[in-house]
Write a structure and sequence with these properties.
binds uridine-5'-diphosphate-xylopyranose, binds adenosine-5'-diphosphate, Rossmann fold, 2 domains, six-stranded parallel β-sheet, alpha/beta
């Protein structure tokens, strides 16, 4: 017998919950979708013309459904109470203290969400784990739900989200796969089918994979670890390219042509960022350690080590090529988001690069088309891992970093600068008037391209001293003592 689905509620209106629910609402007109959050400001923004996140195509989808079968609300308990399926996509920060600090996922928000669901539920519910969580979280959540259930039947599913920011809507419309993990009991299988029917409204059946709970949870961590590993692999090769005169773009192209390897995720960069990769690998490392697998843990930990190395290597290049000091020099930073087409700055390599340059007393002038001054100042003030707590629980930055200014214009940011660092691959950075930028800079004028968006040869012809990740070194840089 088919389960009749009337109402979906999603706990957490963030980068995952917001776009995912908007697309479900668009593709399933007969389903009512309510997204709830404890943050009043965030819900207000979802109900306004200025959505809280920048994502190409998102505005359109929200406009089509909002008020029809898509709603944003702070009345959490009411909507949870009415829902047949509850998606949970709340924060799962890395623990900063106690057991597993710096590695393990902090399930505080998840646990309180589960207790609340058990508390307000008056009818049977399917609870869907959407945020990435450590393997066997579902089991823990299941225990909390069942032990507090008052006779209500809960089925827990793991349905990890694979969307990437900047392409979220595209990824949701046309996913490589949808993964649903559940219990292998008759009730569990029924719940899996119920969720599968939601996605089957637009996703071809053969792309909807069903597995047991733990396979689903582990697949998400493993997929992110594999993707991050490819970037660290190509970034490690980029350092060797600089040392030998090979060109990382040529190497990556040749390597990626092997169909067993494939061309994607082989762009060398200043390092990967984003809310998932580092956090998920740390979580994977912790799980390995807890399961007595130190060799496996250290294998994955090295993916993060290479990423940290890549960021500090970049800073060292900047400082060493500018006569070993950037003290009081103006350095322009173009791009602060962790990738293009998003305003998200979580774990962006720009934070570590800026902190490195500030450590050498540089004056930094930042331009990013989607990131506000307030956000940048908060990022530079927050401690490691503190970013992943609901905004209103984050410590507010007491004093802005005086050495940092933020503008809304690339030419303003670069005016009078000694050097320019490109840290996000925004398309507009490929089309800037670099002659104009060069003329308004101090000489010698340096450009450090952390995303390989500019043509080093063309910029050298203008007069710049150019460093591009993994490319043959500028003669100038060859003569500088290498500390990288
Ligand atoms: C390899 C490269 O594939 C080839 O391009 C290069 O020119 C020479 O080295 P080869 O060593 O002949 O070729 O065999 P390959 O199929 O790559 O397998 C190498 C080893 O990896 C084998 O022991 C194979 O059993 C193992 N392997 C391969 C796995 O354990 N798992 C896999 O998924 C694939
Ligand atoms: C990632 C996964 O791709 C997605 O499937 C998962 O659901 C969440 O985590 P996201 O973090 O949004 O998505 O962006 P992604 O495109 O994966 O980029 C992550 C980081 O890697 C960015 O900083 C990006 O600039 C960097 N990157 C990516 C590279 O440095 N080189 C590449 O070749 C690709
Ligand atoms: P993600 O990238 O995984 O979507 P975000 O941090 O963008 O992560 O979103 C998580 C959201 O979950 C935040 O808006 C936060 O306010 C919300 N949240 C955290 N705990 C709860 C809770 N107990 N109930 C409702 N919303 C919550």
């Amino acid at each position: 017998q088919k389960l009749k689905m009337v109402k979906i509620c999603c706990l957490g209106a963030g980068y995952v919950g917001g776009p995912t629910m908007a697309v479900i609402a668009l593709k399933c007109p007969s389903v009512e979708v309510v997204v709830v959050d404890i943050s009043v400001a965030r819900i207000a923004a979802w109900n306004s013309d200025q959505l809280p996140i920048y994502e190409p195509g998102l505005d359109d989808v929200v406009k089509k459904c909002r008020g029809r079968n898509l709603f944003f609300s702070t009345e959490i308990e009411k909507h949870i109470g009415q829902a047949d399926i509850v998606f949970v996509s709340v924060n799962t920060p890395t623990k900063t203290r106690g057991l597993g600090a710096g590695m393990a996922a902090d399930l505080t928000y998840w646990e309180s969400a589960a207790r609340m669901i058990a508390d307000v539920a008056k009818s049977d519910k399917i609870v869907v784990e959407k945020s990435t969580v450590p393997v066997k979280t579902a089991e823990a959540i299941e225990k909390i739900l069942i032990h507090n259930s008052k006779g209500i039947n809960f089925q827990i599913l793991s349905n990890p989200e694979f969307l990437a920011e900047g392409t979220a809507i595209q990824d949701l419309f046309n996913p490589d796969r949808v993964l649903i993990g559940g219990r292998e009991t008759p009730e569990g299988k029924k719940a899996v089918q119920a969720l599968k029917q939601v996605y089957a409204n637009w996703v071809p059946e053969d792309r909807i994979i069903t597995t047991n709970l733990w396979s689903a949870e582990l697949s998400k961590l493993a997929a992110n670890a594999f993707l991050a590993q490819r970037i660290s692999s190509v970034n490690a090769i980029s350092a060797l390219c600089e040392a030998t005169g090979a060109d990382v773009a040529e190497v990556a192209y040749s390597v990626g042509k092997d169909t067993r390897i494939g061309p994607k995720f082989l762009s060398a960069s200043v390092g990967f960022g984003g809310s998932c990769f580092q956090k998920d690998i740390l979580s994977l490392v912790y799980i390995c350690e807890c399961n007595g697998l130190p060799e496996v843990a250290s294998y994955w930990k090295d993916v993060i080590k290479v990423n940290d190395y890549q960021k500090s290597r970049f800073v060292n290049r900047v400082v060493s090529s500018m006569f070993n000091t950037v003290s009081e020099k103006k350095i322009a930073v173009l791009g602060f988001a962790f990738k293009k087409d998003t305003g998200d700055t979580r774990e962006t390599p720009a934070i570590d690069v800026c902190k490195g340059l500030l450590g050498d007393k540089a004056k930094i002038s930042i331009y990013d088309p989607q990131v506000s001054e307030e956000q940048i100042q908060r990022d530079l003030a927050l401690k490691k891992f503190d970013w992943d707590h609901p905004v209103h629980l984050q410590p507010t930055s007491p004093t802005a970093v005086k050495q940092v200014t933020v503008t809304w214009d690339a030419y303003e940011a670069t005016k009078g600068a000694h050097g320019v660092c490109i840290l996000t691959e925004w398309d507009e950075f490929r089309k800037l008037d670099y002659v104009k930028i060069y003329e308004n800079m101090q000489k010698p004028a340096f450009i450090f391209d952390g995303r390989n968006v500019i043509d080093p040869q063309k910029l050298r012809e203008i007069g710049f001293i150019v460093f591009s990740i993994g490319k043959p070194l500028d003669p100038w840089l060859k003569d500088m003592p290498a500390v990288v």
